[in-house]
Amino acid sequence: MEPGRRALESAVGPVPHEQDAIRRIEDACQVPTYAKWPIALVRGEGCWVWDAAGTRYLDLYGGHAVALTGHCHPRVVDAIRAQAGRLLFFSNVVYSDVRAAAVEALASIAPEGLRRVFLCNSGSEANETALKIARKHTGRMRVVSMREGFHGRTLGALAATGIPSYRDAAYPLPTQHTYIPYGDEAALEEALADDVAAVLLEPIPSMGGIHVAEPAYFQALRRGCDAHGALLIFDEVQTGFGRTGTMWFGEHVGVTPDLITGAKGIASGVPAGVTFVREDLAAAVQVGEQGTTFGGGPLASAAIAATVRCLVDEGLPGNAATVGARLTTALEAIKGVVRVQGRGLLLGIDLDRPAKPVVKALFDGGVLTGTGGNPNQVRLLPPLTLSEEEALGWLPLLERTLAAPGG
Ligand SMILES: Cc1ncc(COP(=O)(O)O)c(C=O)c1O
After folding, report:
1. 4-8, 25-29, 188-192: range with lowest mean pLDDT
2. Which of 19, 25, 154, 300 pairs as cysteine with 52 (C-beta 3.0–4.6 A)?
């Protein structure tokens, strides 16, 4: 038995071992909201995960973009272990040494002018916070967001989510939203007016199908928001913290938004979210206006501080840029690949056929990838620690899959 499980069982009692038993119990006890791969993962290291039957998978999905520093990065694990033995939790009514370390680390990587942070627990909550700040600052209600955008499942974040299939079950939604096609300057110009509190967008839509607008679009966004007194919010839950090859997407296009939201890999797997706030907006927030019990808790803070250290010390944004570019070139040489969209290690592989059967064949071959709003696109969101060898090593499997009859 692996030592980790022995230690776990000595604390919590027996946990199920067999893959089928694990699946049966979860299916019987959970609200059936997730379509799951038919495996139970029990261990992870770097870009690799192992299921309960001992099969190893290359994780190009990054636990849904969360395993930013790879699975169980030793520095992050050490930080969590050390903090768990000191103080598991106390809320924001007291100061905390490890929270101080986390917010200082976040401020050190934030874009100039956005060095105030609000810590929370998820991407949805980070977006709700940004929207609340925008509504209060402008005194306006209307928010412009993108048809392809995804911003979370809470009612406010869902209202900003343009992809209809996510919103359908929750109508009517509470806030006034205008949805426009991403990248369309004319639609943006038409939607912007003096009653708009904010424009909220993923700089690269991910769930809605990965594609990247021209730099001029982002410059038009900035100009348009300024002209109408609206705030510009970048949801960098997927694109942030180095995934696109720079710490923040705005660096690619020379645009700084007024607020940035982050979550996913910010704590390498411990639940955490953050809203980076322009300093004058932060100064106007009153005591009691925002709050959340667990935000900035000691365990999450330790994981955030360690994650930021890994990103900076190991040059992970630079690795994402280099490995992502190399992988893109290699993918585009494969028959059946039409083109690769995205940046860094947020990549959409556009195929000449539906992506789902290809994703299934890759899974059967031991490689985890994903799909999204574009039915012909395979999505990759791997750890930023991905080596060139790992990035290229699975391509013969993809090539064989695309060459197979009916593949
Ligand atoms: C771009 C984006 N924003 C927000 C969210 C919501 O984050 P969470 O699930 O942590 O609430 C997600 C989740 O997938 C996301 O991809």
Report:
1. 4-8
2. 19
| Distance in Å, CA 259 to ligand 1 centroid | 16
Torsion sign across C-alpha atoms 360, 365, 366, 369: negative
| Cα 399 to ligand 1 centre (Å) | 32
> Both 101 and 161 in a single domain?
yes
Q: Nearest Cα to 157, choosing from 233, 271, 64?
A: 233
CB 211 within 8 A of CB 205: yes
Contact 375, 354 (CB under 8 A): yes
Share of the chain above pLDDT 90, in %: 95
Mean pLDDT confidence for 326-349: 98
For ligand 1, whether the C-beta of 206 sits within 6 Å is: yes
Domains of the chain: total: 2
Q: DSSP character for 373?
A: S
Q: What is the pTM of this model?
A: 0.97
Output the CA–CA distances (angstroms, integers) from residue 333 to 89, 117, 339, 387, 396, in the order listed.
51, 43, 9, 20, 12
Verify whether ligand 1 is closer than 6 Å to residue 124 (CB atom).
yes
Q: Are residues 96 and 239 in the same domain?
A: yes
Identify the domain containing residue 5 by its residue range.
Answer: 1-34+44-54
Nearest alpha-carbon partner for 124 in 149, 163, 155: 155
Distance 264 CA to ligand 1 centre (A): 7
Q: Is residue 380 part of a domain?
A: no
Query: Would 285 be classed as within a structural domain?
Result: yes
**pLDDT value of position 401:** 98
Checking if the pLDDT of 3 tops 90, the result is no
Q: Is residue 272 part of a domain?
A: yes
